[in-house]
């Protein structure tokens, strides 16, 4: 009987210590789950833009990008996380039948790995693979020296590696702002591709992106459990109750990439051909949840939209974007295990 009591007591002490360890912000299991939020929030946002890219040679009804990350593995027991990533873009032309000649399909996966033990100054690495196609199956260039923009079959594959790091400012449970940065290396040359684009396409690119975000902290009636109008009270740094949410209010993104491989007709310093750069501002009013208003401007030296890659132009885009824009408030007890993953 004494042995049984001792075993039960030891087990209870172990479980209690384990639970206490999970509550610590610097515990491995808490951080493994916390970093999943960074992986998802740093994923590009989906958008729909009326009139498309103003400045391109074509007139569009709208352009739209639909992308997300399906986290197929994200465990509190592992620094490693795995996602499947679809990334689809369409441009509806302003022609008689409103066609979408060549949709842009990317599908692949990514491995994420947490590099440090700090949620305020996070660091992680990503290794991924993507297949890029326009879904067509026909001849390459029916007229020598020109591109068939209507139904040419564009296809390539690429791998990429990313290093992400950032700094999150908070006051207790109240998120104030975050500064997020990324370096990327992308290469198409190791996999099968259409020989038609050889010497004329940015097979290898290096990229950098910067994102500054601010957050608001508000009382949400739908998740509070009670229905008291408590939005008039200023949040306190010790708030740790159901109903208080951290919501992203403003995001400013700067993205740039440069093709470093050899072109047949352009040298390494042909910036107008090799450089892609864009800056976009997102604002999410209080009456939007995961959605925000969007205004962006940029320059494509190489249009990323499949067979349109030879087009280069400055552009403006406005519309509505959606993505992972909200943190939940930190909760007590075992809720740490699911906090932020809804």
TrEMBL record:
Keywords: Signal
Signal peptide limits: 1-19
Record keyword Signal present: yes
Protein name per Swiss-Prot or TrEMBL: DUF4421 domain-containing protein
């Amino acid at each position: 009987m004494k042995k049984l009591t001792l075993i039960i007591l030891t087990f209870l002490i172990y479980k209690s210590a384990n639970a206490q360890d999970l509550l610590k912000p610097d515990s491995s299991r808490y951080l493994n789950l916390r970093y999943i939020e960074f992986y998802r929030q740093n994923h590009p946002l989906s958008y729909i833009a009326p009139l498309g890219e103003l400045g391109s040679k074509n007139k569009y009804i709208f352009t739209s990008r639909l992308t997300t990350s399906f986290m197929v593995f994200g465990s509190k027991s592992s620094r490693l996380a795995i996602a499947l990533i679809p990334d689809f873009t369409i441009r509806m032309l302003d022609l008689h039948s409103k066609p979408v000649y060549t949709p842009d399909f990317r599908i692949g996966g990514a491995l994420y790995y947490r590099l440090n033990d700090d949620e305020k100054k996070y660091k992680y690495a990503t290794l991924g693979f993507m297949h890029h196609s326009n879904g067509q199956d026909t001849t390459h260039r029916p007229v020598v020296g020109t591109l068939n923009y209507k139904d040419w079959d564009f296809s390539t594959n690429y791998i990429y590696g990313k290093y992400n790091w950032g700094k999150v400012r908070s006051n207790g449970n109240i998120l104030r702002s975050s500064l997020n940065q990324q370096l990327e290396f992308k290469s198409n040359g190791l996999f099968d591709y259409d020989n038609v684009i050889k010497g004329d396409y940015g097979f290898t690119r290096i990229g950098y992106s910067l994102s500054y975000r601010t957050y608001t902290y508000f009382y949400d009636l739908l998740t509070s459990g009670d229905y008291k109008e408590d939005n008039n009270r200023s949040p306190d740094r010790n708030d740790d109750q159901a109903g208080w949410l951290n919501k992203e209010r403003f995001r400013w993104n700067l993205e740039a990439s440069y093709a470093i491989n050899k072109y047949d007709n352009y040298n390494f310093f042909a910036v107008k051909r090799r450089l892609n750069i864009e800056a976009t501002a997102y604002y999410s009013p209080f009456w939007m949840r995961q959605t925000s208003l969007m205004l962006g401007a940029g320059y494509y030296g190489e249009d990323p939209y499949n067979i349109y890659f030879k087009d280069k132009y400055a552009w403006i885009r406005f519309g509505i974007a959606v993505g992972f824009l909200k943190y939940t408030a930190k909760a007590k007890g075992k809720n740490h295990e699911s906090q932020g993953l809804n």
